[in-house]
């Protein structure tokens, strides 16, 4: 009885796995694109909110605080259900990417800003003494070093974005959680299929956070 | 046209759920960190695995496992019970890591000195190590509470009538989709901002060394 139960569970899992893997691919696509756009926008916001001019600094700080202050779920709902109200209608996939990119940008801009601030003042002074322009100093001296300092935290945040991507379930995006839930709804085997989906998430997040930990350790010893 | 009233009326539910989850997590976190630092290898690796799994799963996936997976079988869980258990356990895992870091921040000399004075393990933790570790832990705990306040929005997916689910209903029944969500965003920001200030204040107040 026990063996037949566990073989039937394994059979079910192998039946469900292809659909779940399709969902995982969607989750990873949304995560990857959101990280790409989010990191880029985060760097821009980090530079704007470190600007010396208050007219530039305050609005960008305000936007970042709004982005960080609202739940990612609210951001998803605003983009998907709210934007059509002002004439912008997006499909679930681009809506998820846009919402997660905005959330990513808000959080990473603060992470990158902290990294930029951690670059020793002597670096900026040296660039100044060498007669580099401000833009060149930022581009070649401050940003590369600041990003390096911020890198482990950014990598840790990337893992979080995969977790947040599960919220796109609420828009009906066919990502991993949606696939698991709809299999659960048709078979009434919620526990089995959700645990399998959870294992797929863990198969990525646990090794990834282990790698981030090792990378952090290496950077710490290098300095 | 009144969106603000119902959404604001749900704010106490969000705050209550968040507080319950936080208390459960802060207490269970003590259990997990004790296991994580245990001298017994089996206990230590079990606690470690539990912490890694709880931190590695997307919170909504674990919430669904608790509510639809476990809570609809032999045990019946109400949405609020499932929310507090599910997010409470995830919070406990993060708290355990915060506690662990804070305990490590207390130098080994303090343990050695307590031992040299002949203090018991319990006294050492309660009277010597604990008070020093908690100073380090509190700002991170409040930072977690702020993100928990926002993460609590996802319990709307299992039917807890907090800000997010009231907002969804409002958006559906009124047909205006942007305004309710913007109001919800403002309410969340308004609730989180005092906590953020508290965190910054306590961080300055509790830090032993003056930062450059």
Question: Can you put this structure into words, describing what you see?
Answer:
The complex is a heterodimer of chains A (223) and B (212). The longest helix of chain A has 48 residues, at 2-49. Chain A is an all-alpha fold. In chain A, helix 1 (2-49) packs antiparallel against helix 7 (176-187). Chain A has a single domain, classed as MetI-like (MetI-like fold, Orthogonal Bundle). Chain A has 8 helices and no strands. Chain B is an all-alpha fold. Chain B has one domain: MetI-like fold (Orthogonal Bundle). Helix content of chain B is 79%, strand content 0%. Chain B has helices spanning 4-9, 11-36, 41-56, 59-70, 79-105, 108-116, 121-151, 163-174, 178-206. The radius of gyration of chain B is 20 Å and the shape is flat. The mean pLDDT of chain B is 91. Chains A and B meet through helix 2, helix 3, helix 6, helix 7 and helix 8 of A and helix 3, helix 4, helix 8 and helix 9 of B.
Output the keywords.
heterodimer, A: 223 residues, mainly alpha, MetI-like fold, 8 helices, B: 212 residues, 0% strand, flat
Concise synopsis of the structure shown:
The complex is a heterodimer of chains A (223) and B (212). With 223 residues, chain A is mostly helical. Chain A has helices at residues 2-49, 54-69, 72-82, 92-117, 121-129, 134-165, 176-187, 190-222.
Cα end-to-end separation of chain B: 52 Å
Structural class of chain B: mainly alpha
Segments of chain A where pLDDT lies below 50 for 5+ residues?
A: none
Determine the number of helices of chain A (DSSP H or I, runs of at least 4 residues). 8
Shape of chain B: flat
Provide mean pLDDT of chain B, rounded. Answer: 91
Structural class of chain A: mainly alpha
Largest sheet of chain A: none
Largest interface comes to: A-B, 41 and 39 residues
Terminal CA distance of chain A: 59 Å
Would you give the CATH topology of chain B? MetI-like fold
- The coarse overall form of chain A would be flat
Please estimate the helix content of chain A: over 70%
DSSP strand (E) fraction of chain B? Answer: under 5%
Radius of gyration of chain A using CA atoms only: 22 Å
- CATH architecture label of chain B: Orthogonal Bundle
pLDDT below 50 for ≥5 consecutive residues: which ranges of chain B?
none
> What oligomeric state is this?
heterodimer
Provide the CATH superfamily of chain A: MetI-like
């Amino acid at each position: 009885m026990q063996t037949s139960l566990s073989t039937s569970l394994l059979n079910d899992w192998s039946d469900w796995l292809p659909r779940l893997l399709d969902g995982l691919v969607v989750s990873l696509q949304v995560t990857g694109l959101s990280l790409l756009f989010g990191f880029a926008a985060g760097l821009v916001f980090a530079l704007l909110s470190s600007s010396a001019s208050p007219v530039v600094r305050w609005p960008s700080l305000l936007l970042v605080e709004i982005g960080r202050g609202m739940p990612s779920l609210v951001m998803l709902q605003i983009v998907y259900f709210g934007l059509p109200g002002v004439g912008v209608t997006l499909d679930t996939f681009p809506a998820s990417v846009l919402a997660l990119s905005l959330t990513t940008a808000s959080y990473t801009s603060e992470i990158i800003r902290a990294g930029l601030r951690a670059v020793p003042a002597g670096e900026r002074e040296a660039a100044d003494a060498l007669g580099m322009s401000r833009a060149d100093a930022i581009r070649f001296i401050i940003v590369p070093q600041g990003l390096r300092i911020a890198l482990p935290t950014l990598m840790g945040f990337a893992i979080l974005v995969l977790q947040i991507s599960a919220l796109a379930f609420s828009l009906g995006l066919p990502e991993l959680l949606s696939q698991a839930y709809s299999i659960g709804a048709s078979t009434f085997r919620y526990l089995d299929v959700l645990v399998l989906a959870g294992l797929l998430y863990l198969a990525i997040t646990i090794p990834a956070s282990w790698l981030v930990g090792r990378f952090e350790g290496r950077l710490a010893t290098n300095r | 046209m009144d969106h603000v009233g119902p959404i604001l009326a749900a704010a106490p539910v969000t705050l209550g759920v968040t507080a319950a989850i936080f208390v459960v997590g802060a207490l269970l976190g003590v259990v997990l960190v004790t296991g994580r630092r245990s001298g017994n290898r089996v206990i230590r690796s079990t606690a470690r695995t539990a912490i890694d799994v709880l931190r590695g799963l997307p919170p909504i996936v674990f919430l669904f496992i608790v509510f639809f997976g476990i809570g609809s079988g032999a045990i019946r869980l109400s949405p609020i019970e499932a929310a507090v258990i599910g997010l409470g356990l995830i919070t406990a895992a993060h708290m355990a890591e915060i506690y662990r870091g804070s305990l490590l921040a207390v130098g080994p000399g303090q343990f050695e000195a307590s031992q040299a004075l002949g203090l018991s393990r319990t006294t050492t933790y309660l009277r010597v190590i604990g008070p020093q570790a908690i100073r380090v832990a509190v700002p991170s705990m409040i930072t977690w509470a702020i993100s928990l306040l926002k993460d609590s929005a996802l319990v709307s997916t299992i039917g807890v009538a907090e800000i997010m689910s009231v907002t969804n209903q409002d958006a559906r029944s009124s047909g205006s989709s942007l305004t309710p969500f913007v109001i919800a965003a403002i309410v969340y920001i308004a609730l989180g901002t005092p906590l953020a200030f508290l965190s910054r204040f306590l961080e300055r107040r509790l830090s032993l060394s003056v930062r450059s």
